[in-house]
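Sample entry (362 residues):
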Amino acid sequence: MPKRRRSDGRGGGCRAKRPRRHLYLVLDDWSLGYRIRKIDLSSGFDCDDSSRGSISGSIAALGEQLLPSPIFCTNAPRGLPMHFAAAFGSKIMAMHPRDDGDEEDAYPVVHKRLITCFDVRTRAMVFCPRPKEDQRYPLYIPVGNTLFALSGSFQLLNLPPPQDQSGRWCAKSWLKLPNPPFDSSCVTSQAVHPDGQTIFVSVGRFTNEATFSFHMAEDMEKGICRWESLGEWTLPFKGLGHFDSKLNAWVGLSTYPDAIGHLCSFDVIAAAASHGQSLSRKVSKDTLFSQDPAERHVGATLIHMGRRSKFCLVQCVCVDDRHLVGRIDNYREEGAWPCRYLFRVTTFSLKYDQNGDLLHRR
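Predicted structure, serialized as tokens:
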């Protein structure tokens, strides 16, 4: 006989359901720009779209399943996914550079003064001010209700309170900050201190390895803020490191050549770190990347799911389909081999074992 669930003392006999977790993929799979697709991490499909279909582009599936239909499309120059930023909790911002040439009319959404912002919660699109300078190799760092844009310049955009009860908002303008002492194309990793006041950036691509910090003033418009060099060392992960309160460390994808696809944790640096400070780092024993020899790694993104030690890894792989003999002749005529792109989505939790080793559990 099934056990009866205990009441929580508030008149209910059932436990409250946990909110669903969703993943939003911005894909360069549309002839006119990009499409956003919503993935329900509990089922692998968009929970409010039963009309799933195949993609007209080259990206064909999520694991063994078809991707859900797009919930939003944005008209912008293709091949520039780095100009998208997720910020302010539920907003996806498209900050593609302006085109002052003859192709301007081809992308009417790429305005000279405005950028588009799509809210995944309300499914509404609003316009926000464009950064004061176009970003060449942009690096976007969201910190609470602030978005930092790092390129040849360094700027921030604050999120003001809603204008009215409808929840609409309109950011005013970007604020220019002191320029970084490095080129954004050299950045290998970045992390935000849990105090929300300090940003750490490591460089090492096309230049000597080094790490810098930027401390925010309480009043960014009036306060003094500057970049500081912390020495010739780098954060041991690729891209953004996510702070996990349970581990009390940053977590990211390892940059060590013999640990590609492994996770790496790194003790949080003090906000006022000394030069050349060396802290404890741990690398997981097992890789999270696909080990299928028929799949070629294309890229991967690690996402913190907001709860303690809960993460999601999205890996894109290319599958060689030359074994499909019946289709080879058609592809030979077009001058290309058949190839499919798959997304492997893995959710997992992290912990340290009794020996202090970093473990992940799916």
